[in-house]
Amino acid sequence: MNLDDLRHLWLHLQYNLFTIIIGSAILVFLLTVYLMARRRPVYLVDYACYRAPDNLKAPFHRFMEHSRLTGDFDESSLEFQRKILERSGLGEETYAPEAMHSLPPRPSMAAAREEAEQVMYGALDNLFANTNVNPKNIGILVVNCSLFNPTPSLSAMIVNKYKLRGNIRSYNLGGMGCSAGVIAVDLAKDLLQIHRNTYAVVVSTENITQNWYFGNKKSMLIPNCLFRVGGSAVLLSNKSGDRRRAKYKLVHVVRTHCGADDKAFRCVYQEQDDAGKTGVSLSKDLMAIAGEALKANITTLGPLVLPVSEQLLFFATLVVKKFFNKKMKPYIPDFKLAFEHFCIHAGGRAVIDELEKNLQLMPIHVEASRMTLHRFGNTSSSSIWYELAYIEAKRRMRKGNRVWQIAFGSGFKCNSAVWEALQNVKPSPYGPWEDCIDKYPVTLVA
Predict the structure, then answer these.
(1) Among the listed residues 82, 351, 408, 350, the one whose alpha carbon sits nearest the alpha carbon of residue 218
(2) Structure pTM?
(3) Active site residue 345
């Protein structure tokens, strides 16, 4: 080998080395962009629902007798509440806060804090016990409660109780109604896309103690009859290693806000009556507004979950209605082809009836919602988790099943969350249905 051969060999190796370096750099750059831009899966490791002690049960006769003894309600209001209770779909074992069992009632700040602590800590204690997760490993905390927002916040109360770490991302959502649980999950999901290898806890509840209405305006008496004590705590993870033990994977979240419309904005409205007593007023247009919000929500959700055949029928109907026959009824897609299970917010009997009719569901599809309303009442944003717990307790959740959580809230909002089961899901210990699932479903009086 002479000097010319050595020079040509060097040039050849030099050229290839340059190509390898440039090619490797491009490959590393593209791989980095992909890893940074891709959506990380969000897993639901487990969740827990709070169940109050038996001494807080509020059967109808005790509820009515207590309302009478307070002296705040006239005979017309008492009779109105009695009729609402009879038609509400609630059973005799729902729970009212301790302050409302006292005579006279004591809706103080201290009592409201006590209710919040019992509900939130009760659910979180069960969650941490079932998952064996150290609270110090929680990187994100989202708490939602509409009507009780003290200072320090509810999220700060949890940080203090469990001594969570100082750099935790904590958020406290207030005033967002019964659909805030899905909003909280959506916020946690977005944060889990940014902060790697961590856990997020979502706590959903409502506080009744300071928000009981002691007046005689009919539209403001309805919440007294429907809302009851409850709350949930959900553990989410973006760790790939948690897929093996997680119950579900989050597939979609779709949020619809109709607050630009004045009637929708005011249909669930906290205000004072003529006597200066504060309460939440429910409009007579509530169900119609909820129906419109649902239509807007499923218009976005449908293309994400429905088979192509249903999407084509839905689209064809919209075209015909817009250009040829405006009186034509819109086609309602068959969501039973997309979901095996439905968790409809247990806001009241009328809400469940309306969705069963509009979505053309079978009685078994709304069983979890009806039984949750019967056993626990309207627990606001946490009701969809009691419903999911019912399905699990009945051993109906199989691997690959999809469940649709539908929630409505003030504003007015309709929000949906879609989950996919990663295993044949069994109920977790200390579940809300643990000692009573065999009694359900019960026959409800029409």
Answers:
(1) 82
(2) 0.90
(3) yes
